[in-house]
């Protein structure tokens, strides 16, 4: 079991948050053999300390022709976001900057967004250990379009960072929420583009859990002011109470 501190966003990540996460998870009875608090053979286990790994992957993708710089503003993307879309997923990018061919002119990723050019119309399939066979079609007229791998504020995007870390840490099984099913298809494309299979890393097994929801059926999330484990502890709930609320057997 590996605990990885995904603390790339400097606006949301603080040392006290990481300490609280570790304390709360231990309070719940969860134990890990590798992590930011105990080390391990594939450290560092905080993503903020792994920038060199992400830069190397960005350069490989850029040199391979898989990326392009994107200068679309938030206002541009907000217009896309107003269209009907999966509430648990990002809006499908319409491909405005897709035909740009000046990626090789950038020595560093900062200053523009970088998108992965998905193979238009390609079917991506994988077997989920919980939800069965999954099938998605890549492309701006299909399930997902060209997605971010690096933000203009010089922060690697989630999709790139987790793929790089999963390979480097030799992850064999991933358990996460069902809202990330479509992200699995994106990540499989990134793994292929980075040539990880040729380097001896096979894609991990995936187990996507049903989301924990409130009484109205809305998913529990920070943006909905859902209570954290710390708040539940302060209200006097035991670890057993919290696990029972989450549907733990």
Structure description:
It is built from 7 helices and 7 strands. It is an alpha+beta fold. The chain folds into 2 domains: 45 residues, no CATH class; 162 residues, HUPs (Rossmann fold, 3-Layer(aba) Sandwich). α4 crosses α5. The protein is globular and about 55 Å long. It starts with 14 loop residues before the first helix and ends with a helix.
Q: What descriptors fit this protein?
A:
single chain, 249 residues, alpha+beta, Rossmann fold, 2 domains, three-stranded antiparallel β-sheet, two-stranded antiparallel ribbon, 7 strands, globular
CATH architecture of the largest domain: 3-Layer(aba) Sandwich
SSE string, helix = H, strand = E? HHEHEEEEHEHEHH
Poorly predicted segments? none
Q: Mean of the pLDDT scores?
A: 90
Number of helices: 7
Domain module tally = 2
Determine the CATH topology of the largest domain. Answer: Rossmann fold
Q: Please give the alpha-carbon distance between the first and last residues.
A: 19 Å
How does the major sheet shape up? 3 strands, antiparallel
Name of the top-level CATH class of the largest domain: Alpha Beta
How many β strands by DSSP?
A: 7
Give me the secondary-structure category. Answer: alpha+beta
What Rg do the Cα atoms give?
Answer: 19 Å
- Helix percentage range: 25-40%
């Amino acid at each position: 079991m590996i605990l990885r501190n995904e603390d790339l966003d400097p606006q949301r990540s603080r040392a006290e948050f990481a300490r609280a996460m570790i304390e709360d998870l231990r309070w719940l009875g969860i134990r890990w053999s590798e992590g930011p608090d105990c080390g391990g053979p594939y450290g560092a286990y905080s993503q903020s300390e792994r920038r060199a790994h992400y830069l190397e992957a960005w350069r490989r993708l850029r040199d391979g022709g898989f990326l392009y710089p994107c200068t679309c503003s938030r206002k541009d993307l907000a217009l896309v976001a107003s269209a009907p879309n999966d509430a648990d997923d990002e809006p499908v990018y319409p491909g405005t900057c897709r035909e740009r061919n000046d990626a090789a002119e950038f020595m560093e990723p900062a200053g523009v967004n970088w998108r992965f050019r998905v193979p238009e119309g390609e079917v991506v399939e994988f077997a989920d250990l919980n939800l069965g066979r999954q099938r998605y079609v890549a492309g701006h007229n299909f399930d997902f379009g060209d997605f971010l791998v690096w933000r203009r504020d010089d922060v690697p995007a989630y999709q790139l960072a987790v793929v790089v870390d999963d390979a480097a840490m030799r992850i064999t099984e991933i358990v996460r929420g069902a809202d990330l099913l479509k992200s699995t298809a994106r990540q499989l494309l990134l793994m292929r583009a980075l040539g990880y299979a040729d380097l001896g890393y096979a894609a991990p097994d995936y187990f996507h859990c049903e989301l924990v929801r409130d009484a109205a059926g809305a998913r529990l999330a920070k943006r909905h002011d859902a209570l954290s484990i710390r708040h539940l502890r302060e209200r006097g709930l035991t670890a057993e109470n919290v696990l029972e609320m989450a549907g733990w057997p």
